[in-house]
Design goal:
The structure is a single chain. By secondary structure, the chain is an alpha/beta fold. It folds into 4 domains: about 130 residues, Rossmann fold (3-Layer(aba) Sandwich); about 80 residues, Winged helix-like DNA-binding domain superfamily/Winged helix DNA-binding domain (Arc Repressor Mutant, subunit A), CATH 1.10.10.10; about 70 residues, Arc Repressor Mutant, subunit A, CATH 1.10.10; about 60 residues. It contains 15 helices and 12 strands. A hairpin with a 2-residue loop joins strand 9 and strand 10.
Length: about 375
Amino acid sequence: MKHILIDFENIQPTSEDLKPYPEDSHIWLFLGKNQKTLSIEFCEALCRFGKNVHFRQMSKIGKNALDFYLSFYIGYITGVDDDPQIDIFSHDGGYDLLLQHLSENKYNVQVTRKTLKNITDSSLELLEDKKDTNIEQVEKHKDPNFLLSCQRKIGAYFMENQPISFFKETFLTETGISLLRNDLSNIAPDMQKQIIIQTIENLKKKGLIKEKSQNQEIIYRSANKEEIIEDTILYFEKSNSKPSTPEKMRNVIISRLRSYCISENNVAKEYFSTIYNRMKSKKIIREVNNKIEFAPFSTKEINPIKEDSLEKIIKIMKKWRNKPSNTLKLNNALKSHLKIKNEDSQEIIQQLNQQKIICIDSKNKIQYLI
């Protein structure tokens, strides 16, 4: 998911700068301690993002204050989003060490520093001119966006072309260098190999490349579809954050599939359908009124009413001249007419609501749709 972090005290983007971002992007606006106002034009631009706009006013003033705030929220975002794509509007760069740490520890985070068209800074331009080739190479080697791009290119190749076969370590390295030839063209050979090795290690840690021992030699293969499905199901079982609707679960699954270098819509939809249906069949989740419940469920699963029994109940309800106005009265009426237990009548009411025969509001009042 896209996250935009803005140092609004020093950089004021316009509505035009926010236009390229989709409506589900999260806007994180960092305001100075004494900053009290925003322009009407900018407020109107923020309205498009709705509840995804987050205001953070700094409580302290200091040279590195913003860097600490940005570092904290970059860490927070990577903790709650499996595939974060972060753009930062800021001149400061004290958080670059954090980005290096995220890259070196194989976290799946993509961060881009943004500048505005109408902003000029002679000191930054002067600094840019003085960078030499070695510094540029070191920075590219540590750039999380570049490493993530390398990872996705190599990962996509093995997912598409090597789904089952095993291969040796040398094949991994040679294939990586071949695939990234253009990307690495301006980088020294020893640095190229270091980038390839780091990228392959990332893929191993993510489980996209599997290894096993054979004849005292380690050989490799790419993860197969079944392993990716089971790994994703296991993620949901262990995660403390559970999606509450099928749509939210779909977004999480597609985000996780990107880490396996699966991004095509038709393929992602196929994975989602398989994962979702398997979790339902294994009783890990159930869907009630377009909401997802995870096991253990709050109430026992309701057995559907048989068609003939449902018709009988509807006929009885149609004959009532004064229909029960709330769930308590309907419950008592069903028990009386059908001679059933209290828990059975409650199950019938839930199914009548699910099948749109009745509509129950937040105060348990009933609207009849028959």
